[in-house]
């Protein structure tokens, strides 16, 4: 077996594109190997700012002979269809084709024998196709060529079994040459074999393995922090991004000017993280430290002193801007800025941000009118609660501040700070700060009741609006983060243990929009579509977070009474209870009995239609097993579901049927020769279906 090293050397690849490109390269090469019957190869991919590479092990030196078949048209197909098939395959007549019958008729089959060849020959044909067909999110052309790549492609390294492959792309000839660090080791590196790739690059100050670079950055940055008695803030996303910016990482520690340390720490962190790609540090008390770590891409004779000084200078300029915005914004109360929101467009079809704020206020007030049973902790849900109303009124006002205009990622956070300057009640600022949460599946929900209330109103208003104008997420595209918004509401209800009628909430949100939208003939349909969208997201949430299968949720939904059909929190509890029941021995065996009954009834379709109309005749219960089963069904208590406790109790009561069901099927033949006895037994087992389906549609359980 032999090895392959393949490297595409180019100008700098954007950090965010490197890992996906490496994964795509792995898949394309793996698919190529599979298509050639190669299953045991081991592939490793590497990515760095100037290179995308693949190392293949256990590859064959030769490809075996291969037989392929291509199915053509039916033999009675129109002549043009047959001629087209012949032409596409370089044939002039059907003499070399075989005919094969299948259920759909007799078809022409083209059998081709592909002779074996050196695997290097197959690679030489594949690699140019791989380069030309490689998919980048954004690509470019350069010079006079037609090749598209993420950045100008400068070199093609292709060494297989110790030999350079004979292929080229747009005048770039394959070779055994690559390059080290552009400043510390710019000379060409010649590879004799694939195993030389990683060690030779490392000798030339290039670590090709992205995960190794990331681990090295974390290790060295942690050491710098520990030496100063500081703690490195966890930031896996930034570490990953920085690993894509350097080939030879050299962490260096700089200082933040003390004059900026009274600016809100979120501002400092945002400037350093988002704009400068610096790692941030805290002291042992958790307070932001006046230090930062930057990752250089070079070792210098002065141990990075000039690099540190340059980064401190750039940071000082950026923080001076932030300080200016902080000072200027505080001169105007946040409430005075609300009127400027009518100059900011939320969406061309959905009005301004001022319009959105008005709708959020109405939705917050909506909670005062819903039925008892819904509350946020000790927060009274009525329109007189000043903290909630003020938070709803001002939640978007920071969008017109200088700080948020310059640093959009601080929206909400700055509103929280500015609000505390105007109001003594800290709950207002906390609610505004948190109302964009959760920002992702791993982000916490708002910490306060007021924050969750405003966050839910904001997210539902957004969802209702986009459903009314029919701009919905499709496939992998969700430009307005509507999936995240729906998941946020689901999480706030479930993790906050709060009840709410989802359909009513959707209706209330849609009614806040102007007449041309809310009175649209399809508005009711859109409301139902949005409700079903929530149910789909609920299934995904329960699957990912609680390991509850979607079929279990469907089984609960199929029998939920109207009061609980749209109650996200209660549905989650019922699904969890059903999951627990099915995982128990009683539940497993009872489900098996249910399926057995379903199977028997399917075999007796004519009689099954009459079963529900039949009364069980006790005089026809001849065996003790029948009588015990009948008594258990009669004694079964299925309560009206007024709470989750009722539902759980019903499942517990069903579990008591397990033993009588087992005994019945062990000792009783349902399909008795006597028609009356048979029908009586069918009616009896049908009562099991009715009883179990009152708790969940067990026929949906996979």
TrEMBL record:
<dbReference type="GO" id="GO:0004820">
    <property type="term" value="F:glycine-tRNA ligase activity"/>
</dbReference>
<keyword id="KW-0547">Nucleotide-binding</keyword>
<dbReference type="GO" id="GO:0005829">
    <property type="term" value="C:cytosol"/>
</dbReference>
<dbReference type="InterPro" id="IPR006194">
    <property type="entry name" value="Gly-tRNA-synth_heterodimer"/>
</dbReference>
<dbReference type="GO" id="GO:0004814">
    <property type="term" value="F:arginine-tRNA ligase activity"/>
</dbReference>
<dbReference type="GO" id="GO:0005524">
    <property type="term" value="F:ATP binding"/>
</dbReference>
<dbReference type="GO" id="GO:0006426">
    <property type="term" value="P:glycyl-tRNA aminoacylation"/>
</dbReference>
<keyword id="KW-0030">Aminoacyl-tRNA synthetase</keyword>
<comment type="similarity">
    <text>Belongs to the class-II aminoacyl-tRNA synthetase family.</text>
</comment>
<comment type="subunit">
    <text>Tetramer of two alpha and two beta subunits.</text>
</comment>
<dbReference type="InterPro" id="IPR015944">
    <property type="entry name" value="Gly-tRNA-synth_bsu"/>
</dbReference>
<dbReference type="Pfam" id="PF05746">
    <property type="entry name" value="DALR_1"/>
</dbReference>
<feature type="domain" description="DALR anticodon binding">
    <location>
        <begin position="592"/>
        <end position="688"/>
    </location>
</feature>
<keyword id="KW-0648">Protein biosynthesis</keyword>
<dbReference type="GO" id="GO:0006420">
    <property type="term" value="P:arginyl-tRNA aminoacylation"/>
</dbReference>
<keyword id="KW-0436">Ligase</keyword>
<dbReference type="InterPro" id="IPR008909">
    <property type="entry name" value="DALR_anticod-bd"/>
</dbReference>
<keyword id="KW-0963">Cytoplasm</keyword>
<keyword id="KW-0067">ATP-binding</keyword>
<protein>
    <recommendedName>
        <fullName>Glycine--tRNA ligase beta subunit</fullName>
        <ecNumber>6.1.1.14</ecNumber>
    </recommendedName>
</protein>
<dbReference type="Pfam" id="PF02092">
    <property type="entry name" value="tRNA_synt_2f"/>
</dbReference>
């Amino acid at each position: 077996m032999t090895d392959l090293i393949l490297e595409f050397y180019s100008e700098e690849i954007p950090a965010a594109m490197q890992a996906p490109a490496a994964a795509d390269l792995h898949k394309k090469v793996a698919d190529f190997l599979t298509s050639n019957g190669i299953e045991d190869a081991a592939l490793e991919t590497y990515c760095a700012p100037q290179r995308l590479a693949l190392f293949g092990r256990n590859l064959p030196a030769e490809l075996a002979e291969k037989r392929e078949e291509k199915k053509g048209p039916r033999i009675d197909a129109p002549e043009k269809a047959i001629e087209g098939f012949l032409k596409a395959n370089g044939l002039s007549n059907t003499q070399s084709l075989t005919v094969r019958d299948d259920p759909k008729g007799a078809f022409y089959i083209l059998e081709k024998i592909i002779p074996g060849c050196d695997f290097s020959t197959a690679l030489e044909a594949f690699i140019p196709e791989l380069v030309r067909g490689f998919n980048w999110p954004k690509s470019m052309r350069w010079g006079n060529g037609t090749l598209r790549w993420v950045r100008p492609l400068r070199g093609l390294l292709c060494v297989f079994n110790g030999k350079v492959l004979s292929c080229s792309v747009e005048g770039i000839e394959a070779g055994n040459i690559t390059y080290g660090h552009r400043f510390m080791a710019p000379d060409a590196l010649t590879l004799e074999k694939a195993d030389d790739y990683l060690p030779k690059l490392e000798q030339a100050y290039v670590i090709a393995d992205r995960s190794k670079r990331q681990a090295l950055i974390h290790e060295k940055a942690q050491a710098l922090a520990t030496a100063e008695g500081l703690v490195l803030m966890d930031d896996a996303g930034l570490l990953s991004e920085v690993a894509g910016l350097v080939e030879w990482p050299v962490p260096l520690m700089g200082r933040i000017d003390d004059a900026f340390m009274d600016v809100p720490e979120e501002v400092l962190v945002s400037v350093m993280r988002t704009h400068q790609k610096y790692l941030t540090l805290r002291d042992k008390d958790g307070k932001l430290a006046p230090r930062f770590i930057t990752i250089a891409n070079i070792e210098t004779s002065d141990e990075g002193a000039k690099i540190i000084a340059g980064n401190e200078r750039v940071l000082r300029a950026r923080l001076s801007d932030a300080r200016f915005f902080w000072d200027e914004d505080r001169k105007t109360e946040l409430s005075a800025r609300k009127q400027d929101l009518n100059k900011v467009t939320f969406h061309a079809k959905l009005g301004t941000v001022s319009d959105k704020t008005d709708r959020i206020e109405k939705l917050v007030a909506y909670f005062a009118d819903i039925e008892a049973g819904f509350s946020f902790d000790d927060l009274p849900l009525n329109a007189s609660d000043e903290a909630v109303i003020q938070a709803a009124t001002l939640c978007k006002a920071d969008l017109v501040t200088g700080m948020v205009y310059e640093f959009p990622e601080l929206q909400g956070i700055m509103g929280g700070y500015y609000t505390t300057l105007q109001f003594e009640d800290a709950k207002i600022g906390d609610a505004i700060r948190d109302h964009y949460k959760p920002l992702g599946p791993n982000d916490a929900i708002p910490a306060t009741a007021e924050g969750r209330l405003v966050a839910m109103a904001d997210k539902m208003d957004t969802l209702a609006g986009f459903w009314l104008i029919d701009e919905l997420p499709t496939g992998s595209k969700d430009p307005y983060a509507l999936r995240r918004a729906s998941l946020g509401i689901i999480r706030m209800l479930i993790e906050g243990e709060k009840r709410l009628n989802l359909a009513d909430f959707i209706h209330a949100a849609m009614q806040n929009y102007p007449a041309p939208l809310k009175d649209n003939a399809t508005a009711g349909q859109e409301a139902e579509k949005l409700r079903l969208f929530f149910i789909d997201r609920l299934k995904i949430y329960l699957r990912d977070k609680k390991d509850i299968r979607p079929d279990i949720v469907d089984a609960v939904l199929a029998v939920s009474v109207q009061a609980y059909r749209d109650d996200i929190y209660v549905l989650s509890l019922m699904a969890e209870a059903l999951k627990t029941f099915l995982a128990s021995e009683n539940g497993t065996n009872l489900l098996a009995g249910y399926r057995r009954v379903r199977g028997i009834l399917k075999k007796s379709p004519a009689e099954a239609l009459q079963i529900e109309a039949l009364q069980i005749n006790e005089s026809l219960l001849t065996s003790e097993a029948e009588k015990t089963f009948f008594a258990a069904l009669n004694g079964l208590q299925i309560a009206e579901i007024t709470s989750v406790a009722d539902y759980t109790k019903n499942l517990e009561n069903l579990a008591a049927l397990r033993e009588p069901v087992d005994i019945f099927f062990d000792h009783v033949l349902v399909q008795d020769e006597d028609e009356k006895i048979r029908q009586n037994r069918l009616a009896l087992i049908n009562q099991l279906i009715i009883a179990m389906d009152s708790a969940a549609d067990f026929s949906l359980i996979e």
